[in-house]
Design goal:
alpha/beta, Rossmann fold, 2 domains, 5-stranded parallel sheet, 15 helices, 5 strands, 39% helix, globular
């Protein structure tokens, strides 16, 4: 994770507040259901549904997986009736899986992803049968649409009243921030007081076919800050934060912060023995790190390497509580592309399919065969149509 600074005052830490009522165990169960639904929808479209032409149907299981924690925490813990969300295009199966669990999508559609008349490749207000707040797909357009939605709502509320000003969320992939149209919108002086605008950046540090050598996350933070946005960084999860407090913890933290992205991504695919060899490195803190991780069992060690803030539900909840409603906010959530899948962290996983490892994925998610897993009860209050 190169070019990253130590935790800033805006960094969200996964510490629950006293009296917090969110059941994280329930959210974790829902998260696993959402992961299985999004993964199996794409698997069914490519491997099970009859395909006379033999052409690849497509889908992005890894891109979905990096968004599952963020979208689970948002829909099942945070959203209010007046809120609207723009979902990054490749995460459309996650949106459909959530809508199914909420009873807003009939089970029959789960096997129709990318089929004529079925669920669309990317979220579509006009063609999808379930709730979609913003159509996305054209790069840069979906990310910025909630900004203009917020401005339109304010105009209508001011002139006629009755529409309210709920939050406008954009779920954005880090590569989409390369689009010029995105920064034109961010820098627009007319949005400086739009406190209802919240962007959540899926910072998985991967592009179509490689690991990004230097994503310069701190540069992104500075650019948003210079534009007047509140910046909240969700970097590490509860397990890593706890390890940082132990003897040798600061050496471990420095090592991870200074580690090049390709090296870190390689650790994600290592066995516990390989992690013990590679993680300490050759720097001044290597002996401290070696001693500290010697006391960790294999499962804890490998889980710690993958414990980034964008997959820690309590860290995400803490970030939502810090949102400043007087100006736009960006939450930069560190994630792993393919999180929870056999392909996690692999540099070629963008369009790769779980394929024959679908049984392993199903077993890890705790579900039996077949696509549906049944709806769940949740805290989300009903959201009226736009």
């Amino acid at each position: 994770m190169p070019n990253t600074l130590p935790a800033s005052p805006g960094t969200a830490t996964p510490v629950a507040e006293a009296g917090h009522s969110v059941d994280l165990e329930t959210l974790e169960t829902i998260q696993q259901r959402v992961l299985w639904l999004s993964t199996s929808m794409i698997h069914h479209a490519n491997r099970i549904r009859p395909n006379p032409t033999g052409l690849k149907v497509g889908g992005h299981q890894a891109s979905c997986a990096s968004m599952v924690s963020i979208m689970t925490s948002l829909w099942f813990e945070q959203l209010q009736p007046g809120d609207r969300v723009s979902v990054k295009p490749h995460a459309s199966p996650v949106l459909h899986g959530i809508n199914y669990l909420l009873g807003e999508l009939d089970e029959k559609y789960l096997t129709t992803l990318r089929e004529f008349g079925g669920l669309q490749s990317y979220p579509s207000r006009s063609k999808d049968p379930d709730t979609v707040d913003y159509s996305t797909g054209s790069v840069g357009i979906g990310a910025t649409a909630p900004i203009w939605g917020a401005m339109a709502r304010r105009y209508v509320e001011t002139t006629t009243g009755g529409v309210g000003t709920g939050r406008q969320y954009s779920l954005v992939g880090d590569a989409e921030l390369d689009e010029g149209a995105v920064w034109e919108a961010i820098l627009d002086p007319g949005i400086a007081d739009l406190g209802e605008v919240v962007w959540i950046v899926d910072l998985n540090r991967q592009s179509l076919d490689r690991v990004i050598p230097n994503i310069a996350a701190n540069r992104l933070e500075k650019m948003f800050d210079a534009a007047g946005w509140q910046v909240i960084t969700v970097k590490f999860g509860k397990l890593l934060e706890e390890l940082f407090t132990r003897p040798g913890g600061q050496a471990l933290r420095t090592r991870i912060l200074d580690m090049p992205n390709p090296e870190y991504q390689r650790l994600l695919r290592c066995s516990a023995d390989e992690v013990r060899t590679r993680l300490p490195g050759n720097g001044p803190g290597s002996a401290e790190i070696t001693a500290m991780i010697a006391g960790l069992d294999d499962d804890t060690l490998t889980a710690a390497i993958r414990n980034l803030g964008g997959h820690d539900l309590s860290a995400l909840t803490a970030a939502y509580r810090q949102i400043d409603d007087t100006r736009p906010t960006v939450i930069i959530a560190y994630t792993i592309k393919g999180y929870g899948l056999p392909t996690q962290g692999h540099p070629q996983n963008h369009s790769s399919a779980v394929g024959g490892r679908i049984r392993l994925t199903r077993r890890r998610s705790g579900h039996g065969p077949g696509v549906p897993v049944g709806p769940v009860r949740c805290r989300l209050r009903g959201r009226p149509a736009v």
